[in-house]
Structures are given as structure tokens and as C-alpha cells.
Design brief:
Arc Repressor Mutant, subunit A, about 45% helix, globular, 9 strands, 2 domains, alpha+beta, six-stranded mixed β-sheet, single chain, three-stranded antiparallel β-sheet, Jelly Rolls
């Protein structure tokens, strides 16, 4: 009985700490809104479009293309190596999955965000942080609602071939054996080469790169939990701990253990699980 009471007290204290810190992350299948620590300034290369906004003071961005910038808002395209640092200990990051919008959409968003109204977008995203905190117990938030809060209007939705939608749904399940291109091709009634061509044509991303990023992205769901990392790596499809650590460092610029250590006071809210389930029916 004492052990049960002790466990409940620890959980209550953890939840209280998460609320007090103000560190929160909302995860949907195609969007992420994060407000928390950025970690040590190391190069990262995430597979999603990122918008960084300073909660206070400024941000420094340097990219592999040689771009350097300082201000309250910074934007990076998917798969661009970059280093981001914040003068304040915490910052906001909004991520958009590139396969969710038509070609050219993210480039247009980047131009708007970095234009004359950059400070207005920064304020809008900071206001969205407060709004999303109030919505934390809702079951779902659609892309259009998310986008309107952050950017002022809904982004267009990419229409994908149903066979690709089904493959994306399979990848997003993260249960059992890792999803393979051969398995998705067989289910779609295509040869592996034809399926791989279709997937890249529809999403703009190779199947292998897409799967690698989604695997690393799935880690975010567990970032505030006290969990065995070796078991987690196996559960979400990594062949071994070395591959797991290398992949996470490439995408996030941090070792898995550092992500978990810095996320103990992070409140995580998940929404949109029904979208993945509908894709499989």
C-alpha cells in the first residue's frame, strides 16, 4: 500500500512540475507545437519544416548553406542541416510535415514568415502557445485549426494516392516488425520499384528517408517518460542501440538520453490518432 501511495505522489508531483514549467508539446500526425528547452547547440537535420520563435530575447540560426540570422523568428526547410540557439532557456518550435501540403507551400510560408510582418507572426505563434495550453484536454485539433492559430489561415492539404496514404498509416503504427517497402508494395498490388517511385512522386520524399524520420519523430511521444531506451528503440523499429542513437542525434542534434533528461517537466498532448486509424480502413 505504501508503495502505491508513493508512486501516486511521485506521479502527481511530476504532473505538477510539468504544469508549472510551462513546457508543453502538442503532437498530431502532421503537426507539432513545442515550447521548451532546445538543448545544447549542435547541428540537427529534422525531416519537417520548422519555425522557431523566441519566447523572450532572440534566436541565432546557422545553416549548412552558410546562412546566419538573428531575431525572434527563424525558419528552416525540411532536411536542412542547421544549428539553432536561444538567448533565453526556452523557445517555441512549430513543425509541419512536408508530405501534408502541396509542393511549393512551405517555401511560400517561409517567405511570409520572414517578410515585413515577421514580428506579427512571432506574436501570433506566441499567442497560439497560450491558446493550445487551454485546449490541452481536447481529443483532436485539425490541421486547418492548427495552421490558422499559428499562421493566420489554413494551409492547403496535399491529396495523396490512397495506396500511399495506406502505407503512411502502416508506418505510423509502430507495432510489431518494421514496415518494409516490399510489404507496402505487395499490399498496393505493385512491384517494389513501382511502389517506391509512386511514394517519392506523391510525397516528395523517398520511402527510406520518410520511414527514418517518422521513426525518430515517434520518439517524441515518450520523451517525458521514465523508460528503458534500449527497449524503446526496439519497439519503434531500430535494429540496435547504436543505430538508434546515431539516428536521433542526426535528426535532433541530441543523444536520446539528453532528450529524455531535458523533457522530464514537459507535458505532452497527443491528438489525431483517429486519422491514422481511418487511413487503414
Amino acid at each position: 500500500m505504501d508503495a502505491i501511495v508513493d508512486a501516486k505522489c511521485k506521479e502527481s508531483a511530476r504532473h505538477s512540475g510539468q504544469q508549472q514549467s510551462g513546457h508543453r508539446m502538442l503532437i498530431t500526425p502532421e503537426r507539432v507545437f513545442y515550447a521548451g528547452l532546445l538543448g545544447r547547440p549542435r547541428e540537427r537535420c529534422p525531416g519537417a519544416f520548422h519555425v522557431y520563435v523566441a519566447i523572450r530575447d532572440g534566436l541565432h540560426l546557422s545553416t549548412s548553406e552558410g546562412r546566419e540570422s538573428h531575431g525572434e523568428l527563424a525558419v528552416t526547410m525540411p532536411n536542412l542541416r542547421h544549428t539553432i540557439t536561444s538567448e533565453y532557456r526556452s523557445a517555441i518550435c512549430v513543425a509541419i510535415e512536408p508530405e501534408s501540403v502541396p509542393d511549393g507551400t512551405l517555401e511560400a510560408v517561409a517567405r511570409r514568415l520572414q517578410g515585413p510582418d515577421s514580428h506579427l507572426f512571432a506574436n501570433r505563434i506566441r499567442n497560439a502557445y497560450a491558446t493550445l495550453a487551454e485546449m490541452q484536454h481536447r481529443d483532436a485539433i485539425a490541421n486547418a485549426e492548427f495552421d490558422t492559430m499559428c499562421f493566420g489561415d489554413a494551409l492547403p492539404q496535399r491529396v495523396l494516392d490512397p495506396r500511399v496514404v495506406r502505407a503512411i498509416g502502416r508506418i505510423g503504427q509502430f507495432c510489431g516488425e518494421p514496415v518494409t517497402a516490399a510489404g507496402c508494395a505487395a499490399e498496393a498490388g505493385l512491384s517494389p520499384s513501382r511502389f517506391l517511385h509512386l511514394f517519392k512522386e506523391e510525397t516528395g520524399i523517398s520511402f527510406r528517408s520518410f520511414r527514418a524520420w517518422k521513426r525518430a519523430r515517434h520518439l517524441l511521444h515518450f520523451a517525458n517518460q521514465d523508460i528503458n531506451l534500449a527497449h524503446l528503440a526496439q519497439d519503434i523499429g531500430y535494429p540496435d542501440s547504436t543505430h538508434f542513437s546515431h539516428s536521433i542525434r542526426r535528426f535532433y542534434g541530441l543523444k536520446p538520453r539528453a532528450i529524455f533528461s531535458g523533457s522530464r517537466d514537459l507535458a505532452i498532448y497527443r491528438t489525431g490518432q483517429a486519422a491514422n486509424e481511418r487511413a487503414l480502413t
